[in-house]
Specification:
262 residues, alpha/beta
Length: 262
Amino acid sequence: MSINTIIFDLDDTLLWDKQSIQTAFDKTCEYASTIHNVDPKQLEDAVRVEARKLYESYETYDYTVLIGINPFEGLWGTFDDPTEQFQKMKELIPQYRKDAWTNGLKALGIDDAALGSELGERFVEERKKSPYVYDDTYAVLDQLKEKYQLVLLTNGAPSLQNLKLQITPEIPPYFDHIIISGDFGKGKPDASIFEFVMEKAGITADEGIMVGDNLNTDILGSSRVGMRNVWINREERSANPENQPTYEVKSLTDFLNLVKTL
């Protein structure tokens, strides 16, 4: 059966989220180096370690794994979403931001809680100012929009994923449906969210194709419902023999060329 629906992941598929986070770290750590004699890269590395350690210690951690939220999203999200678990995160997050940066400074021998708090808030603002999008994202979506039903399927908290879309307002109009795991209650790779997408889009697995950068969420999840998928492997990472994509490409432009042959 021919494909009539293309399902896109958001982060690091259409949006270059890793670069946005990196830029926020770069600018925040460079600012810190004007206050104390600290190497920006060493501070970034320390904060990443401390953030992950804290994040995994909270009672909300299992929920974040279920929904698909990483520690660095926690460093700038508000999580003002309706579920009880998100509300617990909302309460934790301000202290988490402060402690991650304060502990990062301490790891480098700097005891300055006031600066840690300031850096935590500065990081939030720097991330909002850095909404990177891949060079070919809009050109590819322009060509696909007229020919296919487009669905956006993203893991994360609705408040945070919608904020990403607000600061890249060109993206939402391309999509017939936007589905966020935090609204649904489970994230990729759970088969149920892909079944929900198919129901919402009115398609069978044969009529859709999943496009994403993550083997463990996008590719595994779509495989579980028998849907073809495309792994966007920009960084030329090694494939997992136990989780093989239907197709592998290096860019969205390559995907556009591929889909013309299907």
